């Protein structure tokens, strides 16, 4: 039941130390890289800010923080994560007797330092990661599901369902708070579907880039998502003193256009000549009366007929 107490204790630490200032706490390390927004107990963190025991560290949805502790161990905190450095007991100036990290949610990379492997312990809602080597990534989902991927050395995960050993590079185990746990197997892209989050292991898939010396990418996940490099930062050019502008003489006004001469009046058309009256037609001459026909001579008497007959002879 020890792992249950540790998981509950991790949640309790997040609740208790999330709002407590840690100015009086002893510094145990410092931030060496901050991207976007990473906050501690007193507000946003910047590079070289110290981190303290019992300090809650949170990152924004696109944030990234890289921290180095006094014994040389390293912790990368990916986007949307919450973690508390629960215990930090010094052994000497270069090592610790105990260093316990309580991870509430998010994605992380752990790199062991100069202390004995048994000095390190990672608490998650699904169980405890025992460090037996150097480098591994782990992810804690919002429901407490935890995945561990070994990159170097060895590790052990113990939960309600027992313990699984990770001894080869890219060995992986997934566990849930209810005790369900997979057997150790080589990680592949299907783990992102199992976890229900394509951004679950961004340091392996290439979703987030770590500084040189924090290497350990691949294991077949680099092609799981499209790698998008950070956009180039705009170059800030110092303002230069500009020469006074050369005044150009104003253009002379255009001369006004002369008025157009008025159009002459059109000449008056003469009146058309009056047409003379047509001459009066003379009266037709009076036709003379037709002469009267002479009377027909009277027929001669019969004795005259005999005269005519005499003339024939």
From TrEMBL:
Residues 221-313 are annotated as: Disordered. Keywords: Signal. Gene3D superfamilies: 2.60.120.1440. It comes from the Bacteria. InterPro entries: FecR (IPR006860). It holds the Pfam family FecR. Residues 1-24 form the signal peptide. Residues 250-313 have a biased composition (Basic and acidic residues). Transmembrane segments: none annotated. Residues 57-155 form the FecR protein domain. This is FecR protein domain-containing protein. The lineage of its organism: Bacteria, Pseudomonadati, Pseudomonadota, Alphaproteobacteria, Hyphomicrobiales.
């Amino acid at each position: 039941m020890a792992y249950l107490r540790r998981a509950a204790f991790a949640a309790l630490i997040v609740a208790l130390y999330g709002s407590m200032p840690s100015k009086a706490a002893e510094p145990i390390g410092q931030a060496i890289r901050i991207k976007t927004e990473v906050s501690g107990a007193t507000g946003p963190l910047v590079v070289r800010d110290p981190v303290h025991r019992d300090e809650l560290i949170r990152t924004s949805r696109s944030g990234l923080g890289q921290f180095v502790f006094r014994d040389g161990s390293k912790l990368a905190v990916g986007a949307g994560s919450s973690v508390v450095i629960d215990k930090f007991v010094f052994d000497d100036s270069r090592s610790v007797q105990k260093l316990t990290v309580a991870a509430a949610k998010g994605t992380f990379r752990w790199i062991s330092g100069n202390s004995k492997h048994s000095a390190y312990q990672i608490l998650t809602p699904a169980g405890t990661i025992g460090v037996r080597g150097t480098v591994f990534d782990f992810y804690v989902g919002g429901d407490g599901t935890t995945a561990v991927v070994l990159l170097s050395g060895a590790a052990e995960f113990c939960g309600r369902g027992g313990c699984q050993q990770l001894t080869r590079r890219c060995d992986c185990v997934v566990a849930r708070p209810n005790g369900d746990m997979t057997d150790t197997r080589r990680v592949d892209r299907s783990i992102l579907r199992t976890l229900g989050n394509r951004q679950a292991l961004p340091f392996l898939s290439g979703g987030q880039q770590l500084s040189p010396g924090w290497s350990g990418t691949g294991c077949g996940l680099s092609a799981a998502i499209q790698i998008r490099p950070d956009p180039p930062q705009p170059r800030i050019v110092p303002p230069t003193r500009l020469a006074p502008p050369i005044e150009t003489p104003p253009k002379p006004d255009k001369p006004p256009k002369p008025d157009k001469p008025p159009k002459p009046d059109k000449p008056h058309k003469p009146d058309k000549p009056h047409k003379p009256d047509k001459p009066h037609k003379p009266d037709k001459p009076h036709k003379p009366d037709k002469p009267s026909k002479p009377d027909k001579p009277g027929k001669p008497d019969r004795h005259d007929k005999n005269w005519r007959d005499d003339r024939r002879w």
